[in-house]
Amino acid sequence: MGTDRVTVADLIFDRLDTDGDGVLAADDYRASADHVLRSYGMGPSSPKGRALIEANLALWQQQAELVDRDHDGMITREEYREWVGSLPPSDSGRPSGTPEVMAALHAQFNVADRNGDGLMDRREFVVWRDLKGVPAQTAESSFQLIDSDGDGAISWNDFSDAAHQHGLAALLYGPR
Fold it and tell me: Which of 11, 56, 170, 171 is 20 to 30 Å from the Cα of 94, by its Cα?
């Protein structure tokens, strides 16, 4: 696996490992959703809250089946790296997200879309990425990749299309 994929795998792993114990488990995926919801002042029983929690837990189920080789209920960093390395490339040749990854991101997108208009403006996008430790300048660069028409707002379709064109990691953690 190339160093770019290892770097991306480690970035995602570290952000998902909410308790810092060096492995991923269902509790990490739930805690990640709870953190996003708290950051936006939403509860887990709100419609957007339920959707995010369900998407994160579905992502955990999929990854536990595919990534947890020894079926011990935990995903190690090495298992996660191997899985990221096996993802099919996007049009850019970089890893693209599975349907479960995209569903979890879509649920996060909807939470970050504060006014519910189906669009995320630059500020909303930068705040969303800041929750995952992405510096504002890096998020700004990612936003520019996604906002191909330059209107200052992105829809979920814009995000999905850009993920296929540039690779998901470039959108989430900045162009490389």
Answer: 56
